[in-house]
Every structure is written in structure tokens, then in C-alpha cells.
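Progress report, Aim 2. The chain analyzed during this reporting quarter is listed below.
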Amino acid sequence: MENTYKTITAEEFAKLDFSKYTLVDLREPDELVVSGIENAINIPFSRFATALDTVPKDKPVIVYCRVGDFSEQIAEILADRGYDVTHVAGGYNAYRKLTEQRKEAPKPVEAEREFIDAKGLKCPGPIVKVADFLRDKPNGTKIHVEATEDAFFSDIKIWCERTGNILETISFTYGVVCADITKSAGRKQVAAQEVQNDKTFVVFSGDLDKTIAAFIMANGAAAMGRKVTVFFTFWGLNILRRTKKVKVKKAFIEKMFGFMMPRGSKKLGLSRMNMGGAGAKMIRAIMKNKGVSSLEELIESAINHGVRLVACQMSMDIMGIRKEELIDGVELGGVSTFLGSGEKSDMSLFI
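Predicted C-alpha cells for the chain:
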């Protein structure tokens, strides 16, 4: 009899005692920074073939990915190898949405720690609210801040680092970023010797030629041993979109945005002489004939060499782009993430 795998819903998954199962998370490591399940084994789908034999058989196995498509494929492979395996329909996104809707019991806050509610605010709202509250407060003031924007997880760490305030704890639970902060001895001034040789690029344009230039410079800087951050905002976000359509729930206007904008780097046009897309095809053909790496190869090379790709979450919210629609290796950030990178760079370019 052919071995088969089982399927459960996010609701059924959430009710399980995870200690009785081996959980295998197929998402990329950057996706686990702010959202994951404790004790789950992370084996990215892109590298699963080489790590297949590392999955233990002592417990039933549950596999999940971002939206449930990859996990179904892996579940079938594991079942063929004799595993008692189940995959989660809808993936981690469905599970996370479910847990976010649950009312978590309020956590006790220290009597001397003041509460800042930044939930529902979009970048730069949460950071501004924290800064405004602490501005006139004495050193040693303790606050507990909560925000629902994923980018706040990165932003508040960078903000504390660059202002000299102390980030005591930070966590991400049920869709809420919680941070405990103590105001320290005033704003930290960046001394000249603190400025490093990092490079920061802001990609605002969604034009093929400008994007190629940005990634050529990013790869060159990485080859020189520099830390490179490429921050994508507004039209530049289209560069990071997956070429294949991802099923996500959107409002009507968000669907219209997605329909009208190019999906992925292969759909980008030229800033001049695009000629209905013919110009972009000509440029790509010339690059190939001249032995110049394609934009897609440049992006892959940048990721492999540690270039940090950051998508502006505020712009994503405006344009109706979801994290699930972005290529692997991209993290979410806000204005503080960009400024923190820029302050340590000796060159910042707006493209």
C-alpha cells in the first residue's frame, strides 16, 4: 500500500501539543527572525534535498511553509520514505493569522515601567511615538512598548543602538512586538571614527537600467568586503516581487495596484527608450552577448555575498504588497533601519 501524508488546518494545528511532534519549518532563515515556533527544526525548502535524512523518525512529523504549497510537496516525499507526516494547509501564515486574532492575556508591566501602545501605527509612527514620549523624561525612565508592525522589530533595535537608549528585552508574540527600554544618558552622538566603510543604497525606481546599476555597485562593494544594505521603497519594491502570482487576500484597490505593477525583475522596463518593452529585451540581449551578468544573476550574487535587502514595510502597506509575494532573502524594515545603516556608511545613494 502506498504511503500517504495527512493534511490539517491551521486551527487543528494550533490545538496540538507540539512537544509530541517533530515540527519542520520550511521557510528561509530570515523569515524566522520575528516569527517562528519554538523547538521547530528549520530546513529551508531550497536546501531540503540535502538535509532530508536529518529529519528524525521518533515522532510524527509536521511540516509547514509560508502558505502551504511547498510543505505539501515535502510531505509527499517524506511519506514515500516511511515517515508519519502531516502538512499544514495554509502554512505558517494561516497559523499566525489565527493566533493574532486570539486575545492574549495582558502581561503584567512593572509598576515603574510606563506603557506605550503603538499597535496599529505604521512606520515611522511607532518610533516617533517612543521618541516623543522619552524626549522630556529623565534618564532611567523605563517603558514597555507594543507595536504590531513587523518592521518595528528591526527599527527599535537600531533606534536604541543609535540613540544610546538601552533595549533590555524584545520579543514577538501573537503578532505583537514587545520591547522594554530604559532611557540612558541622552542621545548618542556619532563620532567621526564611528563612521565605517559600509554602503547604503535606496532603490526608489523600478527601472531596469537603474536597478542593474544599483546591483552592480552593491556586488562590487560586497567584493571589497564592505557591508552593504539595499533599501527598497515604493516602485523599487517591484524588483523584489516573485515572478509567479502568490495567492494572498487583498482589497480591491490593492489587487489593482498588483495588476498594474510589474511582477518581478524580469518585467521591469527601461527609464528611457523602453519602446513598449522592446528596449528592455534589447538591453538584456546585449548584456548576454557581452558576457554581462543578468539582473537576476546580480541579485542572486548579492544575496549570496551577504548584501542585505530590506523592503520598506510602510511602502508595502500602501501599495498592497505582502511579504509572501517577495523573493527569499528579503527582510522588512522601516525608516530607522535605513537611517541606522546610513549613519554607519561613508556613502549612501538614492536611485
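The longest strand covers residues 166-173. The two ends are 59 Å apart (CA to CA). These observations will guide the mutagenesis work planned for the next reporting period.
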